[in-house]
């Protein structure tokens, strides 16, 4: 992709575990990029300036295309920067990689992990943060609510550690796909567990430590070692203020050309239909509106904003709801 920093701008904040998936990927590949740091709570005027209401982090722009959701971002980086891609190459390994993604993100392992944030953490005494996360998750973030969820969350996470120890890592391999360096499958499997390991007080060490799960903890350490080296060698991300990032995006060309509409999509949507789209697992109160210009089994793409100044925003097809907007029964086209 043309333009400075490969035309990439990553919107994130540093303690976001979902954003780390993307940061690690970029570092392991040594891809140069720019970043636009965001506050950990709303409002996010830098995204509003792009016309985006989607509230979750990370988002990644490549040229004038913006990708929401780390799942889609990783897929697109694989596809648009194929030289030295980190993804699996044969169908069996691709299946493992995909199942790991679904396991952590859509089947709720990370959701359980987030319920292990200790209720004593100072951030949870900040009413602004608590209110923001209640908006995100539609569940109470009171100390009582968090403590009540802990036993079930712990059971789920323990079973995750056990699963990795006794299956994928059981034969003593260094990396999930038996490669000589970490691949995307390692990122898909490790990020939730690495995050919990670094979050003071999240894991009860008498139950979950290198003693019970030596292979998992050695893998986490090995991964961090490789990551630190890769970060030291990779180009340092260029930091952009929101207005500069927006100008870069608005002035860039589109990263992707031929976007078609999947005729077999169950919604039967037409090219150009005015729709709104939002995630159904969290952040569901924040809807984006635009004209549908691409739809496949992998993604939905909206044109948001004016013809000249607008951008294309991409969302994963799964985990999102698309609704046609109508006025008096007619599509507002
Ligand atoms: N499925 C999404 C989930 C993203 C997500 O939940 N991100 C968290 C940060 S780790 C978030 O946005 N939290 C609320 C916020 O920052 O607004 C993805 O893979 O990107």
UniProtKB/TrEMBL annotation:
Residues 90-244 form the GST C-terminal domain. CDD domains: GST_N_family (cd00570). Pfam families: DUF7962 (PF25907), GST_N_3 (PF13417). Residues 6-85 form the GST N-terminal domain. GO terms for cellular component: cytoplasm. InterPro entries: DUF7962, Glutathione-S-Trfase_C-like, Glutathione-S-Trfase_C_sf, Glutathione_S-Trfase_N, GST_Omega/HSP26, Thioredoxin-like_sf. SUPFAM superfamilies: GST C-terminal domain-like, Thioredoxin-like. This is GST N-terminal domain-containing protein.
């Amino acid at each position: 992709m043309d333009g400075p920093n490969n035309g990439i701008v990553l919107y994130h904040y540093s303690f976001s575990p979902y954003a780390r998936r993307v940061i690690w990927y970029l570092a392991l590949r040594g891809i140069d990029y720019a970043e636009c740091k965001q506050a950990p709570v709303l409002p996010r005027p830098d995204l509003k300036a792009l016309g985006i209401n989607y509230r979750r982090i990370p988002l990644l722009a490549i040229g004038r295309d913006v990708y929401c959701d780390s799942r889609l971002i990783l897929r697109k980086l694989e596809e648009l920067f194929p030289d030295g891609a980190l993804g699996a190459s044969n169908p069996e390994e691709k299946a493992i990689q995909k199942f790991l993604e679904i396991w952590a993100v859509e089947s709720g392992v990370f959701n359980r992990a987030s319920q292990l944030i200790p209720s004593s953490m100072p951030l949870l005494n900040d009413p602004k943060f608590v209110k923001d996360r209640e908006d995100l998750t539609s569940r109470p973030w009171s100390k009582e609510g968090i403590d009540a969820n802990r036993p079930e969350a712990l059971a789920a996470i323990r079973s995750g550690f056990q699963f990795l120890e006794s299956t994928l890592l059981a034969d003593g391999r260094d990396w999930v796909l038996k490669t000589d360096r970490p691949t995307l499958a390692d990122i898909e499997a490790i990020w939730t567990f690495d995050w919990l390991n670094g979050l003071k007080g999240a894991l009860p060490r008498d139950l979950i430590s290198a003693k019970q799960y030596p292979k998992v903890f050695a893998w986490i350490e090995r991964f961090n070692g490789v990551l630190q080296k890769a970060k030291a060698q990779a180009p340092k991300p260029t930091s952009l203020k929101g207005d500069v990032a927006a100008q870069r995006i608005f002035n860039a060309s589109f990263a992707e050309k031929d976007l078609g509409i999947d005729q077999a999509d169950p919604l039967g949507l037409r090219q150009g239909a005015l729709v709104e789209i939002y995630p159904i697992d969290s952040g569901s109160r924040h809807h984006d509106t635009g004209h549908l210009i691409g739809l496949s089994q992998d993604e939905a793409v909206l044109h948001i904003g004016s013809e000249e100044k607008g951008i294309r925003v991409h969302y994963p097809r799964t985990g999102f709801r698309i609704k046609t907007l109508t006025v008096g029964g007619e599509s507002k086209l």
